[in-house]
Amino acid sequence: MPKINVKICLGTTCYVFGASSLLLIEQFLDDHIKNQIEIEGTPCLDLCKQENKTNRPPFAIVNNKIIENATIETIIEAIKGKLNNENNK
Amino acid sequence: MRTINNATIIKKKLLVNIAKILFNKENPKLLDKIPINMIPKNQNNIRCCIYKDRAVLKYRMMAILGYNCEDEENELKPISEYFNEINMDKSSDENILTIIDVACSSCSPSHYKITENCKGCVARACINSCRKDAISIINSKAVINYDKCVKCGLCMQACPYNAIVYIPVPCEEACPVSAISKDKNGKIKIDFKKCIFCGKCLLACPFGAIMEKSDFVKIINQIIQNKNIVALIAPSIFGQFKATPGQIINAIQKLGFKKIYNVAEGAEITTANEAEELKNVIQHNTFLTNSCCPSYVNLIEKHIPNLKPNLSKTKTPMQYTADIAKNDDKNCITVFIGPCIAKRIEGGKYNNIDYVMSFEELGAMFIATGIDVNECEDISIDINSQKYGVLFPISGGVTTAIKNKLNTKDLSYEIINGLDKKNISLIKIYGNGKKFNKHFLEVMSCKDGCMGGPTTISEPSIGKMFYNKLLK
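YS: structure for the whole thing
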């Protein structure tokens, strides 16, 4: 099974609005989840520049799902959602 | 880990929105619209209604413009008028923290409370644990007699149903020097005779009712008038963005700063002079304590005057760096950029510092001008060329720098990483004649040192990790 990809935007806008604390996410993950995902910090994903999405940084992307106002909790929720989908296939 | 505080996020959004209008040289009247744009009609209110939310934003803007919220003369006076009347002088008064009266929730004094989880059980562990006979059972529920209660918390620990909770006053609790009290309406007051400007209350208040009075708008005004403005950057800046030191410096230049000085340069001089002082001190069998942390210096001056003779006479890195900048060009306008609130007071008193701003405010300027630090070209710069100064931003670094400078292993020292009530009582003991039998006492007001400052952008542990990777 391909790993679930978690992108955390570290562009300046997201970073100023708290993206750095999202980098601590691994501390909050169980080992069996950690083995099924890959986490990467990325340069600006340009999500802050889209009209309808302004003002809601920090952004993260779990596979294709965009998370705005991202917190460690909402990212973990999205990861678990993806994992459940995979298991139900 | 520092949790995300929506009050801080709102402040950052305000900074960005104000900076956008000013950098784009738009009509200042647009400033009046910011609260309405940020809290539009159809949005869910945070407080009782959107109108109160907007009113609080207006007061926050007053602080960002450099006014005391308490000084509002006329509620009808719009922000744009305050903007037009801005006095460009640096703020040099002592009340750099300002309170938004309407934002303060008037928390009731801290107390223990018996919740509805109380089952009125047979064990009566609460009554048995209480040494002041303050708990009785009325209508099958435990009740605290607050005239007798001494807030020891034993009942809370004893209750098998977790039915007793402690309700704190977050700002008072966070203040390590008991400078916060309440007026007769329950609103908070800061006693500036006691306040050491550590900034802990700012982060602690869940209502964001305490604001720092800022030079933000004044600095933007100088930039857009293309003045000869130079940045003195605290070295902890290199842990604040996911970018290289060269990219960060380049980004600050793009913003409009003509020249950039790394305050680590001044820290080289601080290290050398403090090391010299220390040699002397060791001979006289006494001890020295650092002068670079302004909040700690305030603590000594206001609360532990007995320690004054032990306080290093050496200037802070910011002051030496400002001297260098003014020496290079006496007409330049110096802006210290750092993680610290107490530096605003120190800068206000020091002639060669013109303005002080925070990392948060720098970040907001980047966002407003569309500068992505990560996408800036990397200028080659080696932060390790200031081999002592580079160590200053993280707790313990000052001691290491001085130790390296003296080239000795025999220096005995103690490091206090972050001020709280407990640490302060310890330092008071050192000041009260109980001989501190080491050579050097390093104290940083913030946990982790400047990297844990109240206005950092990076979560402190991440900032520290980024910075340590840069060190040789």
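YS: worth flagging: The interface with chain A takes residues 1-2, 4, 9, 12-13, 241-242, 360, 363-364, 366-367, 371-375, 457-459, 461-463 of chain B (CB under 8 Å).
IM: good catch. Also Residues 300 and 308 of chain B are 7 Å apart (CA to CA).
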